[in-house]
Amino acid sequence: MSFGQGGPSWGPGGPGESRTPDWTALADESAARGRRRKWLLIGGGALATAAVAAIVATAVITTGGGGGASGSDKNASELPAPADLPSESSAPEPSFSSVAPPPPPDPKDYIADEKKDKAPVTVDAFFPGKKLTMGDRVYAKGATARTANCATTTQGALGSILDSNGCDQVIRATYSRSGVAVTIGLAVFGTEAEARKAAQQASGGLASLSGSGVPTFCRGGTFCRRTANSYGRYAYFTVGGYTSGKDVTTAAKDVYEAGDDLTDFAFRQIVHRGELQASAAAGAPVA
Length: 287
What we know:
Elements: H1 23-62, H2 123-126, E1 131-134, E2 137-147, E3 154-155, H3 158-164, E4 169-177, E5 180-188, H4 192-200, E6 205-206, E7 225-231, E8 234-242, H5 253-283
Antiparallel strand pairs: 1-2, 2-4, 3-6, 4-5, 5-8, 7-8
């Protein structure tokens, strides 16, 4: 075996056979390997970029606008498809009547005129029970009376005043407490105007009603307290004093208090009568 200055020179046939390398083929092969490496790098980068983009897209979809995920967030797979979105409704628009409903009945109308005031007029309708409680004051109910002869329930000029204004009847009831007695009387008229005129013209007064445990009071010239008022077609009067026969003065607070209590009670009963009838009319079918 011999060695030249350039090193061993072996050909395909083995040692002893000399042949020059194909430098052109080697260069082409090296270039091809470089190209394959370059494409592998480009392909890997593209795959990595796509993966990152997918991760970012998923994060955007699953993250709420408030900076973090919440239980109400929806994944892309849960979003409605375009066909599932609600379309504009074709249902007709609601319509409203242009006619205003009638106003509720006025209770005053039902106690202002006998044509509408149809509830029974009785002692128990206005003065029910056996006693009257006003605040911390309890009054025992005594005698009661009802008559169509209005003038017989009065003293002095009040009788003729009631008759001249068309009084239909008078209902009386007496209440007492601690030596003080008050008789309250309701004079019933056909209209509000008649009742108002009778109360405004009042002179003399109501006659006291004794009995049922209450002795005669406010008779025989005894000074007593008298009042006159009206509401609706009812005029109501009181006479109050001491059962002992003592005169009433302006300092008699107990007599004034009892008279005011009975006046207030009569007014409330008349108002309540109107409210009951108005309520019944509101619930009745329209004719």
